[in-house]
Amino acid sequence: MVTVRPRRIRLVCWVSAAALLVVFSAGATSLTGATGDGYGTFQRGDQLAMVGLGVFGALAILLFTRPRVVADARGVRVRNVIGSYELPWEVIRGVRFDRGAPWASLELHDDDLLPMVALQAADKEHAVEAVRALRRLHQAHLATLASGATPR
């Protein structure tokens, strides 16, 4: 079984989400007094709304920590930022990680490419080892089919 999650982007996202929350919370504490030359004044609700916007922004950033790939003898489960796929090995032609590509992808027999955002080029050797492990699982499946045995 192979389970892969991106490394570098997760660290960047957690730090960015925390920084955004701190900035919005600091901005909320500065919302006091008059809004200018008019009659408006900042209220407690304005401060809470600013913190709430920071929380929503941080949660949006944390969506990018969602990608994951899990593969076993039966197939591959890919979870990207938006959307998830579960594919048996029978529909997969190969595992691609083209030079210059931001992430690896699965090449399907119907000529579609399914991106695997969890296997990012930014993770360097970690991503390369994961692609090699996926290719080994795929080759094992092909060998099982060639021998006439039923895959588990």
TrEMBL record:
InterPro entries: CFP-6_PH. Keywords: Membrane, Signal, Transmembrane, Transmembrane helix. Residues 1-28 form the signal peptide. The chain crosses the membrane at residues 48-65. Residues 66-136 form the Low molecular weight protein antigen 6 PH domain. This is PH domain-containing protein.
